[in-house]
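Write out the 3D structure for:
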Amino acid sequence: MNNFLKQQLNQLKIFPEPELELRILLNKNSLKKNEIFLSNFCISDINLSSFKKTLKRRINREPISKIFGQKSFWKYDFVVDKNVIDPRPESELIIEKVIKYYPKKNKKYKILDICTGSGCLAISLAKEYKNSKIVATDISSKALNIAKINAKKMKCANQIKFIKYNLINNYSSYDIIVTNPPYLSLNEYKKSSLEIKLFEPKIAFVAKNNGYEFYKKISLILSKILKSESTAFVEIGSSQAKNAIKIFKLNNLNLLEVSKDLQKLDRILILNKT
């Protein structure tokens, strides 16, 4: 390994996998078509000025996704910035479960996405259910602007109506409801990484009542908008299942399934109306 690479690795040792971090940054600043590996690296392979700028940003704990404005989710690359949280791989479980419960993709469903953020859930569902119409809400105008950019980029803007509102603005009924609401307590948020605290919106993470604020609000909404044949898919924190289930049952909602993520942690509550 040449001296240039050793110097960059030393700076990246603040991260658990410095070599992976370096490879990503090199390839993001590559002048080559082929992938760059540390074993065959040549400094002429990269835009050196751009590399140094992005390296500095990463050392300052800015996530790779925010530096380059893109994060992969489901089958697509979504535009992201500091106004939206990065789509997380565990949230893809919502899409998987919707497809399991609603395998007929050519049908016309009414879908609601509460707390849409970057629009990753609404847009991924629009691409899977091309005949369906979707309403996606968020309290943040800046987040909705990013979601609209993504919908246009994915060529599904005509399927989705984005609405600025705290949760929902009416009680129309829907076939499919998905939501990934804020669910961290303030103490949990304080313990989160600098990448989260410095470069992602706090409002998208933190919920009052020790993280349960939005489950209480959403359970009331679901009790009014779920039809007998409708299903809700709600993302939860990994330790919240027991208490969250109690909240939903208080509003006469029936638990169909607690779905675990790849780490075998409780992640999605699947509910219908009793």
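The longest strand covers residues 226-235.
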